[in-house]
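User: quick one, sequence for these tokens?
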């Protein structure tokens, strides 16, 4: 009976050790993997320099071509978080028939928070 108890304790300890390894390996990226600690934020302005509420800002992952959208807040502000550090992105805005030029966020930039203000112009 004590042998079974000892073997159960051993199995429990091994299980806990494996769980701890899996938990800590999920906390930081392995060599060759990117951290998702980058973000992009900014303000959308019209041609007169006024902040634009309700503009649609699109962020395009240039690797996967996935597009995320954000509708600007009260002061024309937008933000995207959880971006991979080893991927290039493109951000642009549209509102009421106007669009901004696309701005790039390069994987070579070391900034953790990229600030890209966008200015709308006629299409």
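Assistant:
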């Amino acid at each position: 009976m004590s042998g079974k108890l000892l073997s159960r304790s051993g199995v429990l300890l091994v299980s806990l050790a494996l769980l701890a390894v899996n938990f800590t390996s999920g906390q930081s990226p392995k060599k060759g993997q990117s951290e998702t600690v980058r973000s992009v934020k900014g303000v959308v302005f019209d041609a007169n320099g006024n902040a634009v509420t309700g503009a649609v800002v699109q962020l395009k992952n240039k690797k996967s071509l996935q597009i995320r959208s954000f509708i600007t807040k009260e002061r024309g502000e937008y933000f995207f978080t959880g971006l991979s550090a080893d991927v290039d992105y493109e951000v642009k805005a549209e509102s009421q028939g106007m669009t901004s030029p696309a701005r790039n966020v390069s994987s070579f930039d070391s900034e953790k928070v990229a600030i890209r203000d966008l200015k709308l112009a006629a299409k």
